[in-house]
Specification:
Radius of gyration: 17 Å
Structural class: alpha+beta
Strand content: 25-35%
Shape: globular
Distance between the termini: 45 Å
Helix content: 25-40%
Number of helices: 8
Number of strands: 9
Largest sheet: 7 strands, mixed
Length: 191
């Protein structure tokens, strides 16, 4: 199931359209979102309420920052306000753009995944096993307190992920407790 993606503003709900050449489209086209994309968004950005997630979905699509993923799909940055936390996987047809899925910033196919797995000599299974594919680990863990790990994540263009806790601490109540994973990650990768 797919539905038109609205952008919520002071004036109500406004449908989102991509202007010509946003994703190599010839004309202005409406943007639709599949349920699967919303489900993946909730699963990976697992500690932020749905209202914030959908607001940021509309904002991200209303002013798209596009990366070409392959010949048929595009990655559009998904931002929690000013912070990129992932990508929307978008497919173009002649008549509309379809947001099919959501990839967290460290998932397979993202530029950050390539840097992180190259730096750690890791696989997608390693990233998943350690929970590095969810926002929870970045906001609620001790990774940012470990200088070596923090430096590695910064080298992989992921340093901003640790700033999210301070950005949201007054407005959002996080749904999980503090995770102690830094030692586990260092042990797993033998450093």
């Amino acid at each position: 199931t797919a539905f038109p993606c609205p952008f919520v503003s002071l004036f109500g709900h406004t449908p989102i359209f991509f202007n010509p050449n946003t994703i190599n489209n010839r004309k202005q086209i409406p943007v639709y979102v599949q349920d699967h994309a919303i489900s993946r968004l909730k699963e990976r950005i697992n500690i932020i309420t749905e209202g914030y997630l959908l607001d940021c979905l509309g904002r991200s699509l209303a002013q798209p920052i596009v990366t070409i993923f392959d010949s048929e799909n595009y990655l559009i940055e998904y931002k929690l306000y000013d912070y990129k936390v992932g990508y929307l996987v978008v497919t173009k047809t002649e008549d509309f753009a379809l947001v099919r899925s959501f990839k967290f910033i460290t998932m397979t196919g993202t530029p950050e995944f390539k840097k992180l797995t190259g730096r750690l000599r890791a696989t997608k299974h390693d990233v998943t096993y350690l929970g590095l594919d969810t926002l929870d680990v970045f906001i609620n863990s001790d990774i940012s307190k470990d200088e070596k790990l923090k430096r590695i994540f910064e080298e992989c263009d992921l340093g901003h992920m640790f700033e999210l806790h301070d950005f949201f601490k007054d407005g959002i109540k996080f749904e999980t407790s503090k995770l102690n994973v830094a030692d586990e990650i260092k042990k797993y990768f033998n450093f």
